[in-house]
Amino acid sequence: MDELQSQTEREARILARRKRIQERLAALREGDHGGGKEGEKKEEIGKGKQQVIESKRRLMRVKYRTDQDVTSVRVAGDDRENQHRIQEEQTRQDLRAKLLAEAEQSARQNAAVAMRWADLFSIEVPQDLYNEIEAQRQACERIIGSKDKLIGEIKGELKKKDDEFVKTLKRQAEDIDTLLQYMSRQFVEMQNAYKEELDEIENAFLQERSDLLESNRREMQELFDKRSRLEQDFMDRYLAAVEAYQAQLEGHRQMDAEEYHILKIRLETDIQNLEQHLEAMRATYQLNTEKLEYNYRVLKEREKENTQTIESQKKKLSRQRDILSSLKQRYTETDRRYRDENMKLTDEYKRITEQFKDLQSKFRHFELVDTKKYKEVWGMKEADVAALVRQLLQADKVLHDQQLGWDWRPPDDAVFMPVHGDLVPGATGTGTGGVGSGTGGVGPNGEEESDEDAAARAREAELGERLRDGRNWGALGLLCDEAGFLIDIKARNMIERLPKDEQGLVKAEAILRSLGISDGSSFDALLEALSADSNIELRAKGMVAPAGRGMAEEKSDRGGPAVLVHPDEAVRRLKAFVEVYGTGPSRGPGGGGGGMSGPMRVQGALRRAAEREQEFWSRMTHVISDKHTRVWGALEKQLDKYLALLQERAGSLRDVESLQHQNNELRALLNQYLASRINDELQIPPTQII
């Protein structure tokens, strides 16, 4: 946008310059036509000034003619540069469109790969699991291939820009030579014209000077004669005026003597009046002094009374401190009692947690193995990308320091922050976030399964009541407006085909299902998180202890949050809600009272991992700004060094692929050994040790 604006301003300046040139030409033409009228006024203006006007007109014509030759070169160069920049902007827009399209396609492919990992958790056959992982690897290779193809196109475009730069330099050299020829010729012509016109102007002024001297001499003689006559008349009038002024001065002296006598009498009277006023003011000041002394004594008495009041308030303060100490003692006893009760509840919670760990041990085992394999593949790719980005930053630093002489500012260290710094929640062995509903079995007589179905139907009925309650429609509308990205593509397409009066409810149910909301208590917890006075973000950071069920139930009794959070903060509140309730243990009876179920927590963790991966790719693609990329395009020598770095990177990628192929062969051989039937004949098979 800045380049387009600068081009528009440049074209406007060119048009304004052409307009001024046309106006100057019109003025010259009018001056040539008006030469007849000026000829009539030559005698009035003078020969010298007339010659100056004619010389200026001739020099202006010569200068305009030579300026046209010089300007033609510049106008042609500006036109070529304008066309070049328009074409350059079009090329840049096309390249940006390709980059955006590739980024969007890569994001979709990454999302597809990330979503596929969730399906791998349900595969139990090793061969099928290996085939699916191999398909995931091929999908990752296709993503990398598309990026390498785009890099090749950018390299071709850079090579093309280098050729255009060389051609432009040659064309500019030719224009400069032509411009220098025109300028030297203009200088010679203007120098000769100025010399000729100066000679003409000098001759005209010399002729005019001789004529003026002769006319001034005659005029001076006439003025001297006239002055002598005027001096004689002035002396006669002066003597008569002096006699009249002396008579008037004598009359004024007599009048001033009388006025002085009257003024003296008036001033003496004023002095006597002022002395009387001074005596009256002294008496008044003495009275005011006595009043102030009386007020001072009154204030001293009041100060004594205030001192007594302060003493009484201090005694009262000491009594209040005694009361405060007794209240603190009562608080300490109450706090000790509640701490003992909390310890008992904590022991009960630990016992239930240990039971829950035993139920999910199998799930954690497979989850750890799959997560480890995925992170090994991701770690290799992440290390390669980080190395490439560091090479780009090193090249950028070399360009700034050695070639351009600019101050280079390195990016923030957060750019290289690893995506998978910790394991997926629920796979770390803490027993607080695994799948809690995937290992439940059916009893011998089917009574356990029927109880679970009845409990699930009761939770769904409770959630349906919350959705139909009109007091919660405001919060549901906020979810639909700000959290629509949680709905997958299939559900979104299905919602679009529904009538408009049913889309809102179905959309809200889909968002709640994505968040893992399956009963009324978890829905109340979500409403509490969306309220304006919620502390869910502080709880997510570990700064505030969980509020338990009391706050959510209190919100439910009041009919939903009284004041909803601002829409700009809704997504941040939802993220904090998932972190608080998605990774903590299930609350309430049976583990489904208010938290999210195990599969929902795993899906939430995978979704957050996908978001971190997408953010990682975004950071990697934007580590070098567009301005630095354009600077690179102008430096041919640095592009050769960059090409050498790319060739080195290709060799490193081939080594990595070779190592990866060897790792795959070793992994297949290890799986073959582990799946061998001879392991069944051993007393302690290797599978039990691993």
Concise description?
The chain is built from 18 helices and no strands.
Folded structure, characterized:
Residues 26-52, 426-455 are annotated as: Disordered. Belongs to the DRC1 family. Residues 75-176 form the Dynein regulatory complex protein 1/2 N-terminal domain. Residues 428-444 have a biased composition (Gly residues). The chain has 690 residues and is mostly helical. Among the domains are: 47-243; 453-543 and 563-581, no CATH class; 626-680. It has 18 helices and no strands. The two termini are 61 Å apart.
State the total count of DSSP E strands.
Answer: 0
- Helix amount: over 70%
Q: Roughly how many Å is the radius of gyration?
A: 50 Å
Amino- and carboxy-terminal Cα gap:
61 Å
Largest sheet: none
| SSE succession | HHHHHHHHHHHHHHHHHH
Approximately how much beta-strand content do the residues carry?
under 5%
Runs in which pLDDT lies below 50 for 5 or more consecutive residues are 32-43, 422-449, 545-561, 583-598
Structural class by sheet pairing and helices: mainly alpha
